[in-house]
Amino acid sequence: MSIQEIRHDWSLDEIAALLDQPFNDLLFRAQSAHRAYFEPNRIQVSTLLSIKTGACPEDCGYCSQSAQHATELEPERLLPVSEVLAAAQAARDKGATRFCMGAAWRNPTDRNLERVLEMIEGVSGLGLETCVTLGMLTESQTRRLADAGLDYYNHNLDTSPEFYGQVITTRTYRDRLRTLDHVQRAGIRVCSGGILGMGESRRDRASMLRQLANLPKHPESVPINLLVQVEGTPLFGAEGLDPFEFVRTIAVARILMPRSYVRLSAGRSEMSDELQALCFLAGANSMFYGERLLTTPNAEAASDERLFERLGLAFETVDATERTEPGPCSRQAV
After folding, report:
1. At what angle do helices 202-213 and 12-19 cross, to 10 degrees?
2. Helices 273-281 and 23-37, axial angle in degrees (round to 10)
3. What percentage of the chain reaches a pLDDT higher than 70?
4. How far is CA 63 from the centre of its chain?
5. Does the N terminus or the C terminus of the chain have fewer Cβ atoms within 10 A?
6. Has this prediction a pTM greater than 0.70?
7. Helix 81-93 to helix 110-125 angle, to the nearest 10 degrees?
8. Rounded Cα distance, 56 and 52, in Å
9. In angstroms, rounded to a whole number, what is the distance separating the alpha carbons of residues 127 and 189?
10. Neighbouring-strand partners of residue 263
């Protein structure tokens, strides 16, 4: 099989075999696939802001924002549009090309969606790509987001269908896939990935990647998160993940979805520089930038800048004209 072939028919055994490859062989294949579609030393940078924090009715076992978990997080109402736009301006000034807004909802009401639409239009007006994560969507809500010019919708699968029920019971896997279908049909680019280190097996990780790689169209952005353990959540105290297992998952995501951006997401604050460098070698070419994600810490911006300098990496820039293109293939490297 050519490394540049785009497939949507991967079997679970094929993906499990990739994860089982000798580490050096796997990274060589992943880096080769990465170079076929992207400039190897450019990293796309996004900034994430919680626009509505806490009091979520879902019971996701990893999440500090669940109303069902005894965490110390204080709920906050939906932020004013002006405050969101000020944060977006600051993110752009620091080099971010995409501004992501997250709301702790099971699904947005139409009234709340009106405010979010204003945010999307305002952030887009600053020249940034826009991304939101709002929970489950109806078809009509998805169309309204598309009409507002939303670039990306984030809706993670989190884990495999087989392991999912051990992490979440208030929303089904089918619910998640249905929202992704609405988003793709509306012409909005998909941001969808998962969380590693929740007690899942390697085969579970293979199964999650299979779900993503076998979608009718690959997600344009695939965030791979390392569990950030929050006291008061059911997954607090879970056994840590072998760092090489994390890198393996990044590498296989790159091989399965070679034209997608693969993002280092939550958990970077606990990763060594050496581990992050291995992730970039394995094909990660996107990350969240800034000291805070939704409610958990992120790597410090100054340390990221030092790491980029040491590795010879640079922030990817986005020309405003590129934002109308259908996906990241418009920025392929030679």
Report:
1. 120
2. 60
3. 85
4. 15
5. C
6. yes
7. 30
8. 10
9. 17
10. 223, 286
Looking at per-residue pLDDT, the higher value among 13 and 93 belongs to 13
CB contact set of 320 (below 8 Å; sequence gap of 6+): 127
Residue 53: strand pairing partners: 76
Helices (H), the chain: 12-19, 23-37, 81-93, 110-125, 139-147, 173-185, 202-213, 243-256, 273-281, 301-311
Percent share of the chain, pLDDT over 90: 54
Q: Report the distance separating Cα 166 and Cα 198, nearest Å.
A: 9
Q: Give the DSSP H or E segment for 202.
A: helix 202-213
Pairing of strands 194-196, 189-191: unpaired
The amino acid at residue 281 is L
Compute the residue count for the chain: 334
The answer to whether 212 touches 257, Cβ cutoff 8 Å, is yes
Which sequence positions are flagged as catalytic? Answer: 56, 60, 63, 100, 131, 191, 263
b/e per residue 29-38 (b: at least 16 CB within 10 A): bbbebbeebb
Q: 238: burial class by Cβ within 10 Å (0-12, 13-18, 19+)?
A: middle
> What does residue 262 show for φ and ψ, rounded to 5 degrees?
-105, 120
For residue range 46-103, what is the model confidence (pLDDT) as tens digits?
Answer: 888 888 876 676 777 787 666 556 566 556 678 889 989 998 988 888 778 888 888 8
- Distances from the Cα of 216 to the Cαs of 158, 180, 189, 327, in angstroms? 19, 10, 13, 15
**CA–CA distance, 296 with 266 (Å, rounded to integer):** 8
d(CA 262, CA 223): 6
The answer to whether residue 334 scores a pLDDT higher than 50 is no
